[in-house]
Amino acid sequence: MRVSVPATSANLGPGFDCLGLALNLKNQVIIKPSKFHSVSLKGEGSNNPVLKDNNMFVSIFNDFYNNLTQKRRFFRFEFFNEIPLSRGLGSSSAVIVSAIASAYAIEGIKLEKEKILNLALAYENHPDNITPAVMGGFNVATVQENEVKFINKTMPRGLKAVVVIPNRSISTQLSRKALPFKYSKEDAVFNLSYSSLLTAAFMSENWDMLKHASQDMFHQKYRMKLMPELFEVQKIALQKGALMSTLSGSGSTMLNICSNEDSVALAEKLKEKFPHFRVLCLDFDNFGVKVEL
Ligand SMILES: Nc1ncnc2c1ncn2[C@@H]1O[C@H](COP(=O)(O)OP(=O)(O)O)[C@@H](O)[C@H]1O
Ligand SMILES: N[C@@H](CCOP(=O)(O)O)C(=O)O
User: Which residues are listed for ATP binding in this entry (predicted)?
Assistant: First the structure.
């Protein structure tokens, strides 16, 4: 059985903990019944011993599998990871979502995507990464009485994401602690109005509005200060044709959305200016988690 899951970019500026979209950068796992437990890793995280010995995917998979079947069986897990860890591209959501989907699928149980999403909430209580990881596309999501309420929209082929990935990681948990405990009414109204405008821009495909609507007062400035070069990435991206440029999730990646036509030149310019960062030109993913038996 093969399961794949896309990277995600959350917040999109003002939509802290509620907006997110999926990118065509994927983690895949092949799971086979085996006499012994074994793990092989290729790609991102393959030199990290924790991922081999105490893998979050394996522990979530086992929790669900054991609960579902009451059986003790062994598996071989072959991971092919494209999503960098702790860079704000939803690596932890990808693991959570794909582990849950895998545990059911290997027993031949077909689980609705909404069910996977609600089970994933037990591991990540903000729905902005897990929703696009499950559903693909652009998503607006909130949690009501332990259920994710969301609206999903397909991303068009005419746009690309140019992501700039620094070589320094930022843990989501730690970076959430760096945010203010309280916000003023002005900041709350600011983010409410910009997040609403940004959502309307995505839903109506008014791409010229993205630049105006993607401003934020809740988290970016606090987080980007930890890596001041990110302000320069944002400035250059906007000058060189990005429709919007925001911190991806809790960072350290910057997400730049642009037209297909502008994407190569934008990526080249960012590579030239920031040779020590990784720059990828990606399509959007519109499918989300995928199980192939
Ligand atoms: N491919 C993976 N396999 C196992 N665990 C992973 C993998 N990717 C991420 N993780 C776990 O998720 C953590 C990163 O989560 P987090 O700090 O939320 O960053 P991100 O922004 O990438 O989601 C890692 O430290 C690791 O524990
Ligand atoms: N809304 C969350 C999103 C975290 O995304 P990640 O990809 O960095 O895990 C936040 O801003 O903390």
Answer: 84-94
Rounded distance between C-alpha atoms, residue 195 and residue 95, angstroms: 27
Is 171 assigned a ligand-binding role in the annotation? no
| Nearest Cα residue to atom 1 of ligand 2 | 17
Does the annotation flag 249 for ligand binding?
Answer: no
C-beta separation of 251 from 89 below 8 A: no
243 among annotated binding-site residues = no
Distance 266 CA to ligand 1 centre (A): 28
Q: Read off φ and ψ for residue 107, nearest 5 degrees.
A: -95, 10
The pair of structure tokens assigned to 10 is 């959350």
Q: Is 0.90 surpassed by the pTM of this model?
A: yes
Q: Lowest mean pLDDT: which of 53-67, 84-98, 164-178?
A: 164-178
Any ligand 2 atom below 6 A from CB of 172: yes
Rounded Cα–Cα distance for residues 201 and 60 (Å): 37
Closest ligand 2 atom to the C-alpha of 92? 9
Q: Walk me through the domains of the chain, giving residue ranges and CATH numbers.
A: 2-154+286-292 (3.30.230.10), 159-282 (3.30.70.890)
